[in-house]
Amino acid sequence: MSKGLPPKDSDFSAWYNAIVSKADLAEHGPVKGTMVIKPYGFQLWDNIKEIFDKMIKATGHTNAYFPLFIPKSYLAQEAEHVDGFAKECAVVTHTRLKADPEKGIIVDPESKLEEEVIVRPTSETIIWAMYKKWIQSYRDLPILINQWANVVRWEMRTRLFLRTSEFLWQEGHTAHATAEEAQKETLDILELYRQLAEDYLAMPVLTGFKSEAEKFAGANKTYCIEAMMGDKKALQAGTSHNLGQNFAKAFDVRFQTKENTEAFVYATSWGVSTRLVGAVIMAHGDDKGLRLPPKIAPIQVVIIPIARDEAQAEMVKKYLQPVRDSFEEKGIRYHEDWTDRSPGFKFNEWEMKGVPLRLEVGPRDVENNKAVLARRDNGDKNIVSLEEAKESIPNLLEEIQEGLFSQALQFQKDNTHTVETYDEFKAQIKKGGFVRCGWDGSPETETAIKNDTKATIRCIPLDENPLELTCIYSGKPALHEVIYAKAY
RNA sequence: CGGGGCGUGGCGCAGUCCGGUAGCGCACUUGGCUGGGGGUCAAGUGGUCGCAGGUUCAAAUCCUGUCGCCCCGACCA
Question: Which fold has domain A12-284?
Answer without folding.
Answer: BirA Bifunctional Protein; domain 2 (3.30.930)
